[in-house]
Recover the amino acids of this structure.
């Protein structure tokens, strides 16, 4: 029987990905939404989160699609009300607040899932398996997209806690930390801040192990979400955010890309045993990039 779930923060990603993934799954029934203005046709809509928690004891799971800064407060209240919680990426505005949520969830005996949708991209497990026994010579991340296309009118991305280009960049870091067979740490970070922004719009990062990354939110036209890894046994490239894999020039059949359906499959498994999945390693690199960052001022930018 399908489990009732409430979706909170009905904006771009909820509409684009969460609603279709839930509606396409036999595991889930979208039983309510909570949003100040967003709604989903045919689904009971609340504007007050506490009211939904009080009214709907029959909804054991909430999925939080809000931006990172307001998300902690909602997650804390959901856990206190005995609900299992799914967090969009990046899982919080700070590392410490997500550690707090993980402890609260463990104490309450509920599941907390800090999702990383790009890790579910079809090529990622194949890349991880192929790289597992290789000697890594170098790797490069190219993550360049158009912020106006993916975050239309979303001023929060340039406000404190919005993380700027690391909002999408954390997707690349979630793949990097999944597929590389060795641990790396940052040694250099150059961050480009628009003169009118609290968060960077571009970044050039250097890690140990010959790993580098070029992140930019000003790319119009075709978008670039690629990770290339050079090894002692040839080169591997993940394209299209992990959805397409090429090894030594040959395309590998990795099957269809179903990132968000796979996240909801995983959540269905976690709640069966009240287990949690909270891996903060991608966010460690975001925090380190901001800690180590050399600040370069660039032209003001307007969404
Ligand atoms: P969004 O559309 O700006 O925000 C989602 C919804 O959250 C808004 O429509 C708003 O709904 C609610 N909200 C915003 N600020 C709030 C606040 N301060 N307090 C309470 N509710 C608030 O953002 P999004 O693009 O969906 O992104 C949300 C999360 O998904 C982010 O963490 C992002 O990294 C992740 N994500 C986004 C994309 C993408 O392509 N945009 C892709 C993958 C993941 P109401 O006004 O109706 O309350």
């Amino acid at each position: 029987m399908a489990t009732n779930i409430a979706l909170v923060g009905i904006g771009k990603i909820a509409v684009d990905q969460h609603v279709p993934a839930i509606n396409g799954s036999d595991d889930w029934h979208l039983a309510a939404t909570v949003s100040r203005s967003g709604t989903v046709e045919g689904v009971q809509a609340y504007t007050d989160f506490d009211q939904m928690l009080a009214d709907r004891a029959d909804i054991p799971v909430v999925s939080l699609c809000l931006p990172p800064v307001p998300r902690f407060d909602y997650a804390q209240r959901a856990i206190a009300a005995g609900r299992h919680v799914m967090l969009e990426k990046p899982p919080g505005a700070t590392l410490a607040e997500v550690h707090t949520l993980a402890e609260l969830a463990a104490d309450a005996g509920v599941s907390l899932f800090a999702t990383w949708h790009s890790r579910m991209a079809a090529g990622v497990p194949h890349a991880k398996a192929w790289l597992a026994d290789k000697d890594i010579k170098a790797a490069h991340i190219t993550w360049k997209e158009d912020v106006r296309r993916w975050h239309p009118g979303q001023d929060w991305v340039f406000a404190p806690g919005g993380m700027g280009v690391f909002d999408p960049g954390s997707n690349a870091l979630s793949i990097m930390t999944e597929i590389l067979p060795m641990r790396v740490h940052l040694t250099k970070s150059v961050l480009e801040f628009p003169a009118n922004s609290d968060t960077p719009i571009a970044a050039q990062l250097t890690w140990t192990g010959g790993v580098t990354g070029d992140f930019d939110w000003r790319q119009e036209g075709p978008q670039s979400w690629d990770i290339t890894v050079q090894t002692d046994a040839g080169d591997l490239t993940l394209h299209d955010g992990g959805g397409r894999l090429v090894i030594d020039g040959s395309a590998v059949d990795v099957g269809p890309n179903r990132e968000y359906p796979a996240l909801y499959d995983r959540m269905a498994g976690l709640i069966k045993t009240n287990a949690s999945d909270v891996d903060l390693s991608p966010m460690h690199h975001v925090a380190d990039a901001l800690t180590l960052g050399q600040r370069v001022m660039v032209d003001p930018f307007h969404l």
Notes: The domain at 3-114 is CATH 3.40.50.720 (Rossmann fold). The mean pLDDT is 98.
